[in-house]
């Protein structure tokens, strides 16, 4: 919506501006301009109130694996609503859907992950993992082993602890974050940050050396865990270079530091494997999942953990008489029933295989756009990728303009800095991949005709 658009009184647009406090926006700008009202969805497409169709190139928020109108999920939710619309998992209570989903997750996840705890979002899950880590250190008689390592540009949520592990300045400013127990190591962004002549393996070794230097500077006895996304999402779709995770895990093992794999974006097929840990040879102590676990049809997240992580926590709860934590909606029966059905659909329709089969076409399409005057380089794995475009001295200025051009072309993306980031629903077809790439090409052409882009191209 532009500032020049007339907004009818009492319309949904007007009421939206009047009453809603929106996340992740400039609130004063929203008061002036409003936002795009999405009315319905169908497969990989969503439609606004005027009926214009858009490819949802970010699957909502990296999350809708099965498309936007999967009737099976609606039917399962309705059936569960009729049978048991809500129950909790406090005070020695349980119900079937959460038990069934926990069992399924253990079956399909790396075999050393044997226990599951449910929450309602990735932020909640990562926040709780931090609390669990501190609880576990106390259980082990290590009261000083509490620091958490995140990565610059890493994203783990917006709650106080998870937002502190996050390494994005915008998530810290004026919130009094990060907490002082949270420290950050370097971003493994090889295309942007490698030294002249440095191979990917050499770059990865340098990232591991920087991590070890941080650990030694802070004191290994004070550091409990490191959080990392196998592929960094909200930091700009940063794909780890060769040897990165092998080198990082070796350092963590050397100093007895836990590894938390944040698979909130990567999990359930996004990278061409059920979990990205399989792609990169990661053996985490804890794996956090959300988003595609239910295609975000219901709020749901799951923390999977090893016996070595779980047992000290269980022992401490026995000593104290309770693990004094829980959310009203933890393991919600409707959410977990939908999550289980969603995973069944992913398996039955081989959507993990679809991501693997379409990877070459998707990534080659992005590489083909690198020759455009406005483009720099592309990156990705499976069905998650990004195209870096030429920007101005003000990082993100060109990205936002590109995002607007893409919206005109009927493609919704996320501009992160000056990168066009893509993560389409896993039900996307080969023809629709081509449709998406063509839309990016047209939008880049339109972008190149703007005054801002002309000035950048003239300076190049």
Automatic annotation (TrEMBL):
GO molecular function: transaminase activity
Gene3D superfamilies: Aspartate Aminotransferase, domain 1, Type I PLP-dependent aspartate aminotransferase-like (Major domain)
This protein's UniProt keywords: Aminotransferase, Plasmid, Pyridoxal phosphate, Transferase
Record Pfam families: Aminotran_3 (PF00202)
Cofactor(s) for this UniProt protein: pyridoxal 5'-phosphate
Database matches in InterPro entries: Aminotrans_3, Aminotrans_3_PPA_site, PyrdxlP-dep_Trfase, PyrdxlP-dep_Trfase_major, PyrdxlP-dep_Trfase_small
Family label: Belongs to the class-III pyridoxal-phosphate-dependent aminotransferase family.
The protein's name in its UniProt record: Aspartate aminotransferase family protein
Species, as recorded: Thioclava litoralis
